[in-house]
Amino acid sequence: MTSSLADNKKIVRIGCSSAAWGDTLHSVPQLLKGDQIDYLVGDYLAEVTMAILAKMKAKNPDGGFVPDWALSVQPHLAEIKEKGIKLITNAGGMNPLGCRDAFLKMAQEAGVDFKVAVITGDDLMSQQDEIREQNLRGMFDGKPLPDEMASMNAYLGARGINEALSRGADVVITGRSVDTAVVLGALMHEFDWQPTDYDRLAAGSLAGHIIECGCQATGGLFTDWHETCEDWDNMGFPIVECSADGSFMVTKAENTGGQVSVGTVSEQIIYEIGDPACYLLPDVTCDFTNVKVIQAGKNRVLVSDVLGCAPKDSYKVCGTYMDGFKLMTSYMVAGWQAGAKARKIAEKLVERVARQIKAKGFEPFAEVSIEVIGADDTYGIQANHMAAREVVVKIGLRHHKAEALKLFAAEFATPAVSMAQGVTGVFGGRPKPKPVVRVHSFLIDKTQVPVTLNLNGEKIPIDCTLPETTPTPAEKVEIIPAILEGDITEVPLRAIAWG
């Protein structure tokens, strides 16, 4: 690809206002201040989220999308339009067309006109029978497709978003796409990156990866939390300032809390990527082992030297299904040997109900979890087994029948009422069984996923097949163990590492 001198000087600024469904609705105004951004993106989807949205759509055909996105931008539509800021989000979930209709209604009521594009094709539930016939096995366990699926969505890439922007869309709404696509699609459009510009595509994907989790990149989950905690109440959301060569600056909204440093950015780079030399995405295979991360000023970190090669010819599909029911409850126990007492209370309560469900003809509990929070249970074999004087005991049960768990719900308050001294409170009232949602992931050939751009009443197929190139695998980095000499001082890992 060739770029003009103007392209080389061009900077595209992208801010991310959401890391997941449930993130704050108040991030948008801080990103809209001044001329900080050209694009406002929002990531709302996790694996289990799709099953929740599928259930919502089954109850109401007009539902199935994440309403929080529209609520976050609604008060600011006039400003967004006036500044020419483009919106990209995967809040469409299981019903991106419904999300579009809700947004257009909202914009009409505000007296603002937007050209809205929708990317569909990720929802494969209508192809379930054909997929079953192919006997596609689970990526991680080799198991066949479960009998009843709640949702089944391919992780789409950035090409549809790029095409939508190239056709003049102000707003792009997708269903399930990889989290990084909302950023990469914008950069492909702005810099005319082609499907074979693998280093640039990898760089754009890394830019998206860094900001997709919102405040995680600005100190929200930082190992050295004491450096960022004083202004957590005004945590800044991240912004990337991107150049045509793929390098980019990470910063955050002006006059906000948190921190953008080599540490905060590096922690986010390694977040949920598996092999850093072979991070698989629909548009590119990324190699992050050569990445340079440099502090370029206060709350400004320069990222460069990202490498990439051709992607695979398949999409990852995230399927979700129901696997029985779960019930969880917790209560506080105080006094002498609180930890031991809490554990015994929980064990005996579960034993009591186990006898009852056996008498009713039910199978035993499929899973029992008892955790005593405050007695070092979190640390497993590293526990200190302190003599805690107050703890919270958490009981989790799983069973294939909700009726069996309802027997526990009827008994759970017994310790607080009549059985155990020191039980000082029960959280949340009588617990109710809830469905257990599990994930089944598999790969499917890209030719079987009909990616479609919906714009102005027209349905435009998007070609996402691989270019005629030979993938170049990333070279593995040889790790040479350090040779320790001299005196050794033992320190906590947190003193010398981020993660």
Describe this structure in words.
With 499 residues, the protein is of the alpha+beta class. 27% of the residues lie in helices and 23% in strands. The chain contains 14 helices and 20 strands. The strands form 3 sheets. Strands 11-12-8-7-1-2-3-6-4-19-20 form an 11-stranded mixed β-sheet, sandwiched between helices. Strands 5, 14, 15, 16, 17 and 18 form a 6-stranded antiparallel β-sheet that branches. A 3-stranded antiparallel β-sheet has the order 9-10-13, with helices on one face. Strand 7 and strand 8 form a beta hairpin. Helix 8 crosses helix 9, helix 9 packs across helix 10 and helix 12 crosses helix 13. The two termini are 36 Å apart. The N terminus is likely disordered.
Task: Compile the SSE list and pairings.
Elements: H1 5-9, E1 12-16, H2 28-32, E2 39-42, H3 47-59, H4 67-73, H5 77-83, E3 86-89, H6 96-110, E4 116-120, H7 128-133, E5 151-154, H8 159-166, E6 171-174, H9 181-191, H10 198-211, E7 238-242, E8 248-252, H11 262-269, E9 279-280, E10 285-287, E11 292-297, E12 300-304, E13 307-309, E14 314-334, H12 338-359, E15 367-373, E16 390-399, H13 402-411, H14 414-419, E17 423-426, E18 434-445, E19 452-455, E20 458-461
Parallel strand pairs: 1-2, 2-3, 3-6, 4-6
Antiparallel strand pairs: 1-7, 4-19, 5-14, 7-8, 8-12, 9-10, 10-13, 11-12, 14-16, 14-17, 14-18, 15-16, 19-20
Helix pairs in contact: 8-9, 9-10, 12-13
